[in-house]
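Box 3.1 A note on notation
Throughout this textbook, protein chains are presented in two layers. The first layer is the amino acid sequence; the second is a token string describing backbone geometry. Keep the layers aligned when reading.
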Amino acid sequence: MAAEKWNTILHELRTLDECHASAALPISKVNKIHSRIVNSEKFSVKIGSKVKDFYHTIGVTANLEKRLISSLLENLKQLEDALEGAESDRNKKRKADAAGGSTLKKNRTHDEGSGTPTLSSSTGIPNNLLPRGTRVVCRPEKDFIMGIVLEWLTIEQRYEVMDADTGDDATDVLSQATVAAARAAKKTYKIAPRQLLVIPKVATREYPEGHLVLALYPGATCFYKGRVTVPPSKNLLKTHYSVLFEEDGGIPKDVPILEVLDFPKKKS
């Protein structure tokens, strides 16, 4: 349904573009005739006939454009409803899987996405423990930040995560000196597994145009909410998404594929 509707929208957009192109010539000629009439202050039956024909062509094209725009708006609304319906169905399935103890969800690893790892009842250590150095996204305070896993704290049942923005130019960000400085500056946090988003090492899917994402702002170590404007397959930079960040002046930014994540859904 959604794919068929999208193809219809693309066809209508192409037709609308053709209408604009076909109207350009008669509009240009009408403007030239107007200029001649003004300069010479003459108006003949022949000129009047030409102007009438051009206006008729322009009027027909304008009416077609009006119908196309109306149809486009309706089809876009239907596509939006279809996508929302599909998302609702996926959410229902996820809830049903969670309620039924879905094997898929239980076996999902951090590398495949976010989630709560299963814990060993005997040790209290996650079965899919994140290794030291894993890049993650977390929200210790107001902003989503890029962090680096330091270790699993069994007693607290939390990961110790270091803010990637340590201000240290050392090549090894996990050196003892860097970690000690981060701890001293209170730039390490204790984060529950379910509150971490793992930054993947390999992209497993492409988010389409309009998709809500959490993306790393260029030149920073914070992730912000935004929407995909151009996916990598359609971007000049095939290794980047074009992302429009909220409250960023309406100018899309290019962000590397691995630093664009699906925006986390609220826990129900």
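The helical segments are 2-40, 45-99, 103-107, 176-184. The radius of gyration is 28 Å.
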